[in-house]
Structure formats: C-alpha cells, structure tokens
Specification:
Helix content is about 45%, strand content about 20%. Strands 3-2-1-4-5 form a five-stranded mixed sheet, with helices on both faces. Strands 8-7-6-9-10 form a five-stranded mixed sheet, with helices on both faces. It binds 5'-O-[(R)-(carboxyoxy)(hydroxy)phosphoryl]adenosine (KG4) and zinc ion (ZN).
Length: about 350
C-alpha cells in the first residue's frame, strides 16, 4: 500500500448537513463542501428526519461533484471513499452510505465506514498538523458528551459520559424554551455575549462516585423552572443573563472534568471536539484552564467543529491505512457506539 499522499473522498449525511470533502493523508483538506439544511429545519423548530433524507438525496451527487472540482481532482485520483455509517438519523445516513457504495462499486475503489463521533475527534488532526495521540478529548455534540483518552488514532478509551442529555441537546432545549429557536447552541452563545454569567445560580450536576460523568438534566429542569416561574409571576426574563448563567454552568462542568481527567491520567495534551466545541465561552475557559495547568490546548477551527465531511475523510484515512475497509454489505447503523 502506498503511504505517501493518500487521497480520500469523505461523505457525511448523518443529520442536517450534506457534505463531501477531499483530504490528503488525513490532514490536508483540498476541499470541504457543506450544503446546510438549517434554513429549512428552522421553520419547524428542529430537524425533521423525512425532510433531511429528501434533501440529502437531492443534494448528495452535486455536493460530491463540487468537492472533487474544488479539490482539482477526478474520481481516478481518489484512493478510497470514507462515509459516515453512524450514529445519526437512519434515513439520512442511508443516503450517504448508498451514494458511497454506488461510487465504490462503479469505480472499483475501497469504501470505509466511519463512526461520526470519531470523525469529530479527527477534525483536530486537520486544524493541528502537529497533534498526535495520546491526548484527552472531550467530545461535545448534539447527541454525545464523552470524555475520552485518545491512546492512538484508532484506539479511544471512554473515561466519562453524560448519563442523560448531551451538552448540545441541553443548549438546544434551553434555546427553544427561551424563544431563541433552532439551532440553539450558536444562538445561546450569541445571546450570552451581553449577559452576566453570575446573575443566576443554576445547579452543577454531579454523578455520585463517577467523577468523570456528566449530568445536564437537573440544569435543564432548573432553567425551565426559572422560565415558567417568571412567566407565571409576569417577571421579565433577562435573556442574556439567563443564557450566560446557563452557559457558565455547562462550561464549568465540562472544563473541570476534562482537566481532572488529564491530571489523573498524566496526559499533557487536551482537545475539544464536536459542535459544542464551537462555543466561544467553552473555548475561552478551556484555553485558560489549559494554560493554568500547563497543558497543550487544541480545538478545531469552527467549520470543522460542526458536521463536515473533511473530518470523516480524516478519520477514514487511519482505518484505510489499517486495512479496515468495508464491502458492499456496509450498512447504516443509527445507534453505532463510540
Ligand atoms: O457535532 P454537531 O454539529 O452534530 C452532532 O453530531 O450532533 O453538533 C450539533 C450541536 C447542536 O446541539 C448545536 O446546538 C451545538 O452543537 N452547537 C453549539 C454551538 N454551535 C453548535 N453549542 C454551543 N455553542 C455553539 N457555538
Ligand atoms: Zn456531529
């Protein structure tokens, strides 16, 4: 197998972005095309799975063609096709998987089925060419909150996780409750800017005897109760204060456990991954905590934090090198574990 300049076409369709990218050697992005469905799902206040599948179907071929064109490559230049096989919405995943299988079959190219969450971790290899395992990685997305140790590119150990809501899910629910709408995370992030993070004290969830696990359901309930109470008494809610206070509570919980984990395991480099890692308060607090503890601090550029296909190609590169490729039996797995 030639190991210099391996070119992978990545395809991602697990939720509401149809994406394709061309990446060399798991690090160098030649193109990164994302067709976002956010404007349409916003009308309904969240992702409608049937609409997501239909839009993926309409857009996937054009997005792939554009990714090749922008990279200045043809199908002949591609060594392998990496596609998200799960977790995600089954109908949405199936569009990407079917497109990838059709291409692999027609072009006689290998196909690699990639775990979406591992893709988020691999986004760090794109933004930080010098980053190598081992490192601690906090994965915070719409569906997952996992504190992990990346022991090697394909060897990930889960140290802690959320026992209830994912961090992103909590952002989305709070945003909806406060009337900011979908997608919640970026809107809460923006609304927090003028707010006082100390204005309201919300409970920091702890999971007894599991120092690296997270719990956000108590926080979510406390925010909803605060809003309900204010509505009943006719009290005016200060949205920036509420958002900033909620955000501070989430960020404290995420950053403190991540630092504790790195200290306990003696690991010097610490990274963030997933959609919530685009959050400005989390990035700032994480950077500060890393500096205080003398840790190397890594997070992807914002475009590689949220869903994209470059990260899928980056993760797929290591599976390809290891010979972990699939065949035409590859299927979508909506509840694929990390
Ligand atoms: O990783 P991602 O794009 O998709 C999943 O794999 O789930 O993450 C989406 C999540 C959503 O919950 C969204 O609200 C959150 O990431 N998110 C943010 C920000 N940008 C996206 N949360 C907080 N602050 C942000 N700036
Ligand atoms: Zn994602």
């Amino acid at each position: 197998m030639k190991e210099d300049k391996i070119t992978i076409l990545g395809i991602e369709s697990s939720c509401d972005e149809t994406a394709a990218a061309v990446v060399e050697n798991g690090r160098t992005v030649l193109s990164n095309v994302i067709s976002s469905q956010i404007d349409i799902h916003t009308i309904y206040g969240g992702v409608v799975p049937e609409i997501a599948s239909r839009l993926h179907l309409e857009n996937v071929n054009g997005v792939i063609r554009l990714a090749l064109k922008e990279a200045g490559k043809t199908f002949d230049d591609i060594d392998a096709i990496a596609v998200t096989k799960g977790p995600g919405l089954v109908g949405a995943l199936l569009i990407g998987v079917s497109a990838a299988k059709a291409l692999a079959f027609a072009l006689h190219k290998p196909i690699v089925g990639v775990n979406h969450i591992r893709g988020h971790v691999a986004a760090n290899y794109i933004s930080h060419p010098e980053l190598k395992p081992p490192f601690v990685c906090l994965i915070v997305s719409g569906g997952h909150t996992h504190l992990t140790i990346v022991r090697d590119y394909r060897d990930l150990m889960i140290v802690g996780k959320s026992v209830d809501d994912a961090a992103g899910e909590c952002y989305d629910k709070v945003a909806r409750a406060v009337g900011l709408g979908y997608p919640g995370g970026p809107k809460v992030d923006k609304a927090s800017k003028g707010g006082d993070p100390e204005a309201i004290v919300f409970p920091k969830g702890e999971v007894r005897d599991r120092p690296y696990d997270f719990t956000f359901s108590g926080l979510k309930s406390a925010v909803l109760n605060y809003i309900n109470k204010a509505n009943m008494t006719g009290e005016q809610i200060c949205v920036p204060d509420l958002c900033a206070s909620f955000q501070q509570t989430v960020v404290d919980s995420l950053v403190s456990r991540t630092m504790d984990c790195a200290k306990a395991y003696g690991i010097k480099n610490v990274a963030l991954a997933g959609g919530v890692s685009a959050n400005s308060a989390l990035r700032a607090a994480f950077q500060k905590a890393c500096e205080e503890n003398g840790f190397g601090c890594f997070y992807p550029e914002p475009i590689y934090c949220t869903d994209n296909a470059a990260m899928i190609a980056a993760a797929g590169y290591h599976d390809y090198l290891a010979g972990d490729v699939s065949d035409m039996t590859l299927n979508a797995d909506p509840s694929l574990k990390l």
